[in-house]
Amino acid sequence: MIRIFAVSGFKNSGKTTLCMKLLEELGRLGVKTGYIKRTAEEALSPRATDTGRAAELGVSSALWGADGLRIESPAASVTPDYIVSRYFPDAEIVIVEGGKYLDLPKIWVENGEPRPENVSGVFMVYDRNSAGDGKMVFGAGCEAEMARRLAATVRGGFYRSAKVYIGDRPLPVKDFIADFIRGSVLGMLASLKGGGDASEGVRIYIDGKIRK
User: Fold this and answer.
1) Pairing assessment for the beta strands 93-97 and 33-37 based on DSSP bridges
2) What is the DSSP letter of 77?
3) Residue 165 to residue 35: CA distance in whole angstroms
4) What is the distance between the alpha carbons of residues 65 and 83, in angstroms, rounded to a whole number?
């Protein structure tokens, strides 16, 4: 199961810096990661663009240009689980920058201001001006240890070899079932022309609608 953690705090508290350090340290540990930046500002294209107009009609859209790909989706359908299942299906850990009021486990970045009472789920605190206690509060220079603790939530004595989603919802799968699914799918693909190389992973989409 993919773990999603929020790095939350007030503006200019150092959230981005901490996110980049955690992503770097998790990468050194071999953990596949994803990153989402949460903002209160509008992120969709202006109404004048075709993709922006389509999004206003409730249609998810993609804008493909020479500099990259931008996905636009109506706000009503967007949740952390939706974003992760669609765009980071191979990740083990996804870090959301911001989202102090999202229902996610959080690392709170201190900046001297009192934390709002309605911020829940804080399991670690990052305070650049404190040495920390090594248990819940961590200071500058402790990012590697913080990353190790995050990695421990997805890495044990095994590595889950397959992930299954029903729509946007990850389906809990035991490790031996995940291994069985992986082996079965790769075995079938190996018999198809061009299906023998799965080094970059495999994605399969099954239409749940029954057509008569």
Assistant:
1) parallel
2) G
3) 20
4) 21
Structure tokens belonging to residue 179: 């291994």
Q: Which of 186, 192, 20, 153 is nearest to 97 (CA)?
A: 20
Rounded to 10 deg, the angle between the 143-151 and 15-28 helix axes is 60
Kindly state the tokens that stand for 212.
Answer: 């008569």
Using DSSP bridges, classify how beta strands 169-170 and 165-166 pair: parallel, antiparallel or unpaired.
antiparallel
User: 10 Å Cβ neighbour count for 94?
Assistant: 22
Q: Which of 171, 163, 5 is nearest to 80 (CA)?
A: 5
Q: State pLDDT tens for residues 69-124.
A: 888 777 667 889 988 988 898 888 999 999 999 999 999 999 999 999 999 999 99
SS3 147: helix
Residues 212, 164: Cα–Cα separation, whole Å: 26
Question: Whole-structure pTM over 0.85, yes or no?
Answer: no
